[in-house]
């Protein structure tokens, strides 16, 4: 694994955005060869999306030949609801860039048959040739997407009931009214994300520090599902100083030295 | 591939780099239009997997809903109240010209006139009313929302420039008088009358029942008479302060409706304001605005001379002299009417009242739409609204904003 530690949230967002940008540009996507990107939602990746939009506006990147697959979506929440993940992606990303709407995939939490929807989603990923880079976040309980503690580490896209921790964490988006928070969601499985060629996890903030510790310094454990990525050949954890608060000094020192030596340079030959 | 055509084949236009007037504020959002309606881009993206066929860069301008002028008597040499062979040509001509001022919908106004002007008397097409129908606007000109019939059921004492010999009262008991004078009420949006005329209550009720806006004006009514009319259904005041009793602290008259506590719940009384800086002193404009900001409707009350170049013009029986924003009876200092354009009124209103850009724009778009009960379709830039909208540059007090009006197929109308 690579552990990339930046001083604060803004720098971490910038690093992650630059990494995504560079990967797409170096891949040289075209009409016959799309770049497939897995995407998260939430407050953590918000800064990263802002930066990507900036790079798009500056002409450094195009999403014309990029296919995206979001990790999850609430069940039963109307798509136009301001807290649905469709709304999040539209307002914070899609409406500002040049992605073809047919290439932006998000699970439909209002589908008639949820199981079929999940299977169809796996099928779409397979047809797109698999995911090149899956970007994700981590919950305070160490979950990736909505793979709550206890989820199988080889799971596929399916319906999940949300854990109490997650519902409480999300209540702030629903006026702090627990009764208004959806209790079920469709989510890609741990196994689905493990199939990606490369995985990048964004973790910022002191409230995520314990989860990060459990994910990388303890063993692979289905109670902290992000730990599954210890067994993926190409994983990057991008975090800020606060998120490292529960890690051993030795771990942090080792990776900090590496980060200074390997920050992605500005891709200027694009133009 | 702009759209997978699951909803419509029509081209989609996206206005970028603009600020739009929505939800009472100026938002930094793009505006999407298809087939004359404002589109929800999120639905377009997810449901139809569509995006824009064409992008228009607004370079930072404001997009506002098209202005609605509910009181305009003519312009550019055309007088709507003049019976002629081709009234509709005259209306269309003015409709096209007022697009330049940002007006995309209007109510051609007829002042007190002889019955022939209203009726279709014989097969000779001299009458006005039947010749013009309600219709939507487009690049050809602003839409007609219906006539504004200002008179003849008004007060002799407050007739202003209306011809006394054609004034009428409710002799036969209301509706019969209306039909006798007007002939038909089919394409009528607003009727201005004086509520102190005996028998007016049943008229107000009947007109309101038919969905016609009843306006109080050219009247010597006191506050309780005005309030009674509102209770029967009146919702508008014609050019506040002009042609009515002045505000008096023991009987505020019609002006008192702005702060009356006897307005039925859920109802708003709107009031027309000629904000040309001449017909209303800016201090009076401010008093009205501060007393009842949500009811203020900007109107031009423009006369035939509006839009004509400075100098002398012979219009019908009169010779008018235009100097700047003033139109005088030639050789005198008597004002003969308003020649302000709607964009001038909006600008002057903002400057005189110190209100925000949003409020100034709403006074000319949202409020008249609410008055006429059409705000679900016009006066707003919400999803589903009709898309005759303005594009204006920044609203600095001393800079003349450039107004462009865009219509559905995104051909620039002006």
From TrEMBL, chain A:
Species classification: Eukaryota, Metazoa, Chordata, Craniata, Vertebrata
Cytoplasm is among the record's keywords: yes
GO biological process terms, semicolon-separated: carbohydrate metabolic process; glucosamine catabolic process; N-acetylglucosamine catabolic process; N-acetylneuraminate catabolic process
Gene: gnpda2
Name the record gives this protein: Glucosamine-6-phosphate isomerase
Keyword hit for Hydrolase: yes
InterPro entries reported for this sequence: Glc/Gal-6P_isomerase (IPR006148), Glucosamine6P_isomerase (IPR004547), Glucosamine6P_isomerase_CS (IPR018321), NagB/RpiA_transferase-like (IPR037171)
SUPFAM superfamilies registered for this protein in UniProt: NagB/RpiA/CoA transferase-like
One GO MF term: identical protein binding
UniProt cross-references to CDD domains, sorted A to Z: GlcN6P_deaminase
Catalyzed chemical reaction(s): alpha-D-glucosamine 6-phosphate + H2O = beta-D-fructose 6-phosphate + NH4(+)
Main localisation: cytoplasm
Family membership noted in the UniProt record: Belongs to the glucosamine/galactosamine-6-phosphate isomerase family.
Coiled coil: 104-131
Subunit structure, as described in the record: Homohexamer.
Subcellular localization: Cytoplasm
Pfam families found in the cross-reference section: Glucosamine_iso
HAMAP family the record matches: GlcN6P_deamin
PANTHER family: GLUCOSAMINE-6-PHOSPHATE ISOMERASE, GLUCOSAMINE-6-PHOSPHATE ISOMERASE 2
Gene Ontology cellular component annotations, sorted alphabetically: cytoplasm
Class of the enzyme per the UniProt entry, highest EC level: hydrolase
Glucosamine/galactosamine-6-phosphate isomerase domain sequence ranges: 14-232
Keywords: Carbohydrate metabolism, Coiled coil, Cytoplasm, Hydrolase
EC id: 3.5.99.6
Automatic annotation (TrEMBL), chain B:
Residues covered by the Amidohydrolase-related domain: 62-387
One example of a Gene Ontology biological process annotation: N-acetylglucosamine catabolic process
Alphabetized Pfam families for the sequence: Amidohydro_1 (PF01979)
Entries under InterPro entries matching the protein: Amidohydro-rel, GlcNAc_6-P_deAcase, Metal-dep_hydrolase_composite, Metal_Hydrolase
Organism superkingdom: Eukaryota
Pathway: Amino-sugar metabolism; N-acetylneuraminate degradation
Entry EC number(s): 3.5.1.25
Active-site residue list: 301 (proton donor/acceptor)
Binding site for substrate: 161, 242-243, 250, 279, 335-337
EC top class, as a word: hydrolase
Entry's cofactor comment: Binds 1 divalent metal cation per subunit.
Names of the cofactor(s): a divalent metal cation
SUPFAM superfamilies reported in the protein's UniProt record: Composite domain of metallo-dependent hydrolases, Metallo-dependent hydrolases
Annotated positions binding Zn(2+): 150, 218, 239
Molecular-function GO term, any one: metal ion binding
Keywords: Carbohydrate metabolism, Hydrolase, Metal-binding
PANTHER family the UniProt entry points to: N-ACETYLGLUCOSAMINE-6-PHOSPHATE DEACETYLASE (PTHR11113:SF14)
UniProt family annotation: Belongs to the metallo-dependent hydrolases superfamily. NagA family.
Name of the molecule in the record: N-acetylglucosamine-6-phosphate deacetylase
Organism (species): Oreochromis niloticus
């Amino acid at each position: 694994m690579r552990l990339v530690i930046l001083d604060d949230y803004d720098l971490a967002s910038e690093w992650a955005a630059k990494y995504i940008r560079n990967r797409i540009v170096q891949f040289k996507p075209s009409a016959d060869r799309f770049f497939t990107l897995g995407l998260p939602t939430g407050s953590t990746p918000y800064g990263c999306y802002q930066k990507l939009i900036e790079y798009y506006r500056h002409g450094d990147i195009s999403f014309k030949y990029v296919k995206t697959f979001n990790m999850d979506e609430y069940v039963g929440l109307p798509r136009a609801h301001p807290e649905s993940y469709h709304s999040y992606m539209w307002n914070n990303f899609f409406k500002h860039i040049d992605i073809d709407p047919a290439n932006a995939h998000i699970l439909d939490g209002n589908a008639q048959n949820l199981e079929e929807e999940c299977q169809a989603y796996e099928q779409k990923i397979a047809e797109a040739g698999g995911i090149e880079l899956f970007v994700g976040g981590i919950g305070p309980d160490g979950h990736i997407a909505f793979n709550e503690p206890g989820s199988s580490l080889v799971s596929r896209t399916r319906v999940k009931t949300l854990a109490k921790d997650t519902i409480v964490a999300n209540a702030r988006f629903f006026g702090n009214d627990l009764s208004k928070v959806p209790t079920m969601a469709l989510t890609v499985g741990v196994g689905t994300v493990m199939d990606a060629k490369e995985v990048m996890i964004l973790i910022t903030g002191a409230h995520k520090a314990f989860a990060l510790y459990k994910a990388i310094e303890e063993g692979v454990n289905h109670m902290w599902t992000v730990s599954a990525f210890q067994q993926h050949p190409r994983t990057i954890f991008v975090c800020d100083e606060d998120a490292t608060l529960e890690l051993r000094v030795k771990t942090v020192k080792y990776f900090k030295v590496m980060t200074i030596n390997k920050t992605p340079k500005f891709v200027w030959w694009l133009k | 591939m702009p759209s997978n055509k699951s909803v419509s084949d029509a081209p989609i236009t996206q206005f970028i780099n603009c600020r739009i007037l929505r939800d009472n504020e100026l938002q930094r959002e793009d505006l999407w239009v298809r087939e004359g309606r404002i589109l929800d881009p999120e639905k377009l993206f997810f449901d139809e997997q569509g995006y824009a066929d064409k992008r228009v860069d607004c370079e930072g301008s404001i997009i506002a809903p098209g202005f609605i002028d509910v009181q305009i008597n003519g312009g550019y040499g055309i007088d709507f109240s003049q019976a002629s062979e081709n009234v509709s040509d005259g209306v269309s001509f003015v409709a096209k010209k007022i697009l330049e001022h940002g007006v995309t919908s209007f109510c051609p106004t007829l002042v007190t006139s002889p019955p022939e002007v209203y009726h279709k008397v014989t097969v000779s097409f001299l009458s006005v009313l039947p010749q013009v129908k309600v219709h939507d606007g487009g690049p050809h000109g602003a839409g007609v929302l219906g006539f504004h019939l200002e008179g003849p059921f008004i007060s002799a004492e407050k007739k202003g420039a209306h011809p006394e010999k054609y004034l009428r009262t409710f002799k036969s008991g209301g509706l019969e008088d209306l039909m006798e004078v007007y002939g038909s009420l089919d394409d009528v949006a607003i009727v201005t009358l004086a509520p102190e005329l005996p028998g007016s209550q049943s008229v107000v009720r009947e007109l309101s029942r038919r969905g016609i806006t009843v306006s109080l004006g050219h009247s010597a009514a006191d506050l309780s008479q005005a309030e009674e009319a509102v209770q029967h259904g009146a919702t508008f005041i014609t050019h506040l302060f002009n042609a009515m009793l002045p505000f008096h602290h023991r009987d505020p008259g019609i002006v008192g409706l702005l702060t009356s506590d006897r307005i039925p719940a859920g109802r708003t009384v709107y009031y027309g304001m000629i904000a040309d800086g001449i017909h209303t002193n800016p201090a009076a404009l401010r008093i009205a605005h501060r007393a009842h900001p949500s009811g203020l409707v900007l109107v031009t009350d423009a006369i035939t001379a509006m839009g004509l170049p400075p100098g002398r013009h012979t219009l019908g029986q009169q010779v008018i002299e235009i100097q700047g924003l003033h139109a005088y009876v030639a050789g005198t200092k008597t004002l003969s009417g308003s020649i302000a354009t709607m964009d001038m009124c909006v600008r002057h209103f903002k400057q005189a009242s110190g209100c925000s850009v949003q409020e100034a724009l709403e006074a000319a778009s949202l409020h008249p739409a609410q008055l006429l009960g059409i705000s679900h379709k016009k006066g707003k830039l919400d999803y589903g609204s009709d898309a005759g909208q303005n594009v204006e540059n920044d609203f600095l007090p001393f800079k003349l904003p450039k107004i462009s009006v865009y219509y559905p197929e995104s051909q620039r109308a002006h």
